[in-house]
Prior knowledge:
This protein is α/β, with parallel strands linked by helices. It is about 45% helix and about 15% strand.
Amino acid sequence: MNIFREIIDLGFEQVVFCHDRESGLKAVVAIHSTKAGPALGGCRMRAYMSEDEMIADALRLARGMTYKAAVYGLKYGGGKAVIWGSPATDKNPDKFHALGRFIEGLNGRYITGLDMGTTVSDMDVIRLETRHVTDTSGSIMAKGDFTAEMTAYGVYLGIKAAVKHRLGCDGVGGLTVAVQGLGKVGWRLCSYLHEAGAKLFISDLNKEAAAAAVRIFGAQQVPPDRIWMQACDVFAPCALGGILNDRTIPKLCCAVVAGAANNQLGLERHADLLQERNILYVPDYVINAGGIIITAGELDGGKEEELRSSVEAVQPMLLNLFRMAKDEGITALTAANRLAEQAL
Length: 344
């Protein structure tokens, strides 16, 4: 991986490598764009296999945040912080104190918040070192996993838009949806889909979560290495990225791919491969933008009910993208990229 070349080619403004010997912090803060405003994006903690994998994740996630903000016209840019380590075994408060000091040194160019592997208490520690952090105790975002709830709500509305366009259905009642990943967002998405009458196939490495979904939602469990092969109307990736690639796409048995995971495509050309198979791919950074929409709203002084209603922008946005794509003979991803890049 030629890190410097990739940083330049993808248009990054700044990438900061953070190391604190005393706490053991190893982290990257990637700022893709501050053209529209401060770079906004959460702090992820994960046991990466290598430094290259950590850096690549930070870059892809940060760029995605820029595009999410731009396509919805938010007054923020995109950034991301990633910490190398297992959230279960490698956490200590000193790491988050150190990260907070690094973020403070960026002078407001980057605002962090919750992401995979981090908690409200972690954000509270960062707050002791910098004011440039969201999702702290007392905020709307920290209230009952509100961010996850609204992200899932946006994905649910996006699925409704996709099946309307692709299948001519006015809702998901009676449709089959295969949900990969039962984390905070995936679980809540299942709840919305189940309540609306969809039949669920689910998969998760956490056996207890999978068993609970079978019990509560009447879902059918599918092995994790076969969920993308499940015959269904909608495949909803809600776990880690890169699931749509040369190996998996030929085995998909669905009409729509629409889920909460970031960076679902292995490469952007995989959107073309999906279209060749007549599978509607819903751009991940458009459908899963509920989190950044409400975070931007709270930073701008919005109240809880206003934030909830703001997420409803996902459905008309996607319907518009689908129309553009159909009229111009392009993928929905290309249409989304064009909209975002026009705003940058």
